[in-house]
């Protein structure tokens, strides 16, 4: 059994959470939207076109990306507590689980109905391994007896248990190479701070046919609070994990959105809050060259449920401009960089700027985007311009009258420890 199951039960007997709930989004990211969940208390999954399928315990309904009702895909005869939900990458159906008795169904997106697949008590999370094949996380033996990861054929209902692990049921997600990520925790309720971890089962092990256990997983990141959902960046494979710390009355003491590198390094805290439960992390391509990392250009958007609202968060790239200080004095200025970080100033001949940017991996752990060919970029010495507490920096320069229209500047920014974390927009002089 998972905390979400207990929380769903508690939702009907506890007062609404206090209006004092607070959320903070950290530097390098921007809260770009908020949508009231159109089906309160529902679980949901986002489809390829941005619309969402919701399950509220009775009806499976389809809503547009903006929250407009489209149609009801299926209605069950009686209320059940919600469980796992996932969209088949084939685009024809969703897997829907209920956690009252544990039935799992395939619901057709054309509205033609639902098919019972299998009974998996306390099913909590699901992720598709391939079209027509999902892995469901479910504590099929009950409370405090471990959790199973079960491969389900969503056409036939055939199942294979691929892992039995310790702790309550946790979230699952697949990476692009077929690795299976799992959020582990402990059976204690409430879970103590730092009791959660993110595990990885390698693709070869997942496909081996052997029954896997705790010892077959690589512990990527430990010491985090209990994970409620995992999403994988489709470009560089970073993990976005939502966590919650609750008390014995189901009050959320703290929640967070964590960004974890594929090697397990905790790279960023994207957002944090208190007073609301956070879950349903999803990463979607949103147009643009960036990936989901601080200070990147647009490209991948995170949505997650916080309380009963669906929030969107995008990377926030530092802006740049060249301003006149009067006479022959000018400054290349940036805003929105890392507070108390620094900027390495680079420049090049604007005649070689390509208009649009090209993305490079280079030796960074993020994509570097620039409109200049790499061999046309120069740096201004070997010193760094410090950023103030708001993430702003300025590089003054003198133009004797022959530089206007010939230069383009770009900053490569660091964090407060000196590690490179991103780049600014280009600024023309």
Offer a few descriptive terms.
single chain; 429 residues; Neuraminidase; Immunoglobulin-like; 2 domains; 35 strands; 50% strand; disordered N terminus
What is the fold's blueprint, element by element?
Blueprint: H1 3-10, E1 22-25, E2 29-36, E3 43-46, E4 52-55, E5 59-63, E6 69-75, E7 82-87, E8 93-98, E9 103-108, E10 114-119, E11 123-130, E12 133-138, E13 147-153, E14 159-165, E15 172-174, E16 180-184, E17 196-201, H2 203-206, E18 218-224, E19 226-232, E20 239-246, E21 252-260, E22 266-274, E23 278-285, E24 300-306, E25 309-315, E26 319-326, E27 329-335, E28 342-349, E29 358-360, E30 368-370, E31 378-379, E32 385-386, E33 393-398, E34 407-414, E35 420-428
Antiparallel strand pairs: 1-22, 2-25, 3-4, 4-5, 5-6, 7-8, 8-9, 9-10, 11-12, 12-13, 13-14, 15-16, 16-17, 17-18, 19-20, 20-21, 21-22, 23-24, 24-25, 26-27, 27-33, 28-31, 28-32, 28-34, 29-30, 34-35
Low-confidence stretches: 1-19
Tally of structural domains: 2
Structural class: mainly beta
Bin the strand percentage: over 45%
| Rough outline | elongated
Can you give the helix content as a percent range? under 10%
Q: Major sheet: size, sense and barrel closure?
A: 5 strands, antiparallel
CATH architecture of the largest domain: 6 Propeller
List the total number of helices: 2
Radius of gyration: 24 Å
Number of E-state strands = 35
Mean pLDDT across all residues, rounded? Answer: 93
CATH superfamily of the largest domain: TolB, C-terminal domain
Distance between the termini: 61 Å
Biggest sheet strand order reads 1-22-21-20-19
Q: Can you identify the CATH class of the largest domain?
A: Mainly Beta
CATH topology of the largest domain: Neuraminidase
């Amino acid at each position: 059994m998972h905390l979400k199951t207990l929380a769903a039960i508690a939702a009907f007997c506890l007062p609404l959470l206090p209006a004092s709930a607070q959320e903070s989004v950290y530097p390098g990211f921007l809260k770009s939207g908020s949508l009231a969940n159109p089906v309160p208390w529902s679980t949901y999954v986002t489809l390829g076109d941005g619309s969402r399928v919701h399950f509220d315990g009775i009806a499976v309904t389809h809503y547009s990306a903006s929250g407009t009702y489209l149609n009801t895909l299926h209605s069950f005869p009686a209320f059940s507590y919600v469980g796992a939900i996932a969209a088949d990458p084939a685009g024809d159906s969703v897997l829907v689980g209920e956690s009252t008795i544990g039935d799992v169904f395939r619901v057709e997106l054309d509205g033609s109905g639902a098919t019972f697949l299998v009974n998996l008590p306390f099913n909590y999370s699901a992720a598709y391994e391939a079209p027509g094949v999902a892995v469901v996380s479910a504590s099929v033996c009950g409370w405090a007896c471990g959790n199973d990861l079960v491969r389900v054929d969503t056409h036939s209902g055939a199942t294979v248990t691929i892992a039995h692990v310790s702790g309550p049921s946790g979230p699952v997600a697949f990476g692009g190479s077929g690795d299976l990520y799992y959020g582990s925790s402990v059976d204690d309720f409430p879970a103590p701070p730092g009791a959660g971890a993110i595990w990885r089962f390698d693709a070869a092990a997942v496909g081996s046919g052997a029954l896997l256990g705790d010892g077959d997983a690589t512990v990527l990141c430990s010491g985090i609070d209990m994970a409620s959902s995992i999403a994988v960046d489709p470009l560089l494979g970073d993990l976005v994990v939502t966590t919650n710390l609750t008390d014995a009355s189901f009050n959320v003491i703290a929640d967070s959105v964590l960004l974890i590198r594929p090697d397990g390094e905790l790279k960023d805290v994207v957002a944090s809050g208190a007073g609301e439960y956070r879950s349903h992390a999803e990463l979607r391509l949103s147009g643009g060259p960036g990936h989901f990392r601080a200070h990147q250009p647009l490209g991948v958007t995170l949505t997650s449920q916080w309380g009963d609202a669906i929030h969107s968060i995008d990377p926030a790239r530092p802006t740049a401009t060249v301003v006149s200080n009067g006479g022959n004095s000018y400054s290349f200025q940036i805003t929105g960089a890392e507070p108390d970080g620094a900027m390495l100033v680079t420049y090049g001949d604007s005649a070689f700027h390509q208009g649009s940017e090209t993305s490079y991996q280079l030796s960074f752990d993020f994509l570097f985007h620039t409109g200049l060919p790499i061999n046309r970029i120069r740096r201004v010495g070997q010193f760094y311009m410090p950023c103030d507490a708001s993430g702003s920096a300025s590089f003054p320069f003198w133009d004797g009258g022959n530089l206007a229209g010939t230069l383009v500047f770009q900053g490569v920014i660091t964090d407060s420890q000196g590690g490179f974390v991103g780049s600014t927009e280009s600024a023309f002089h």
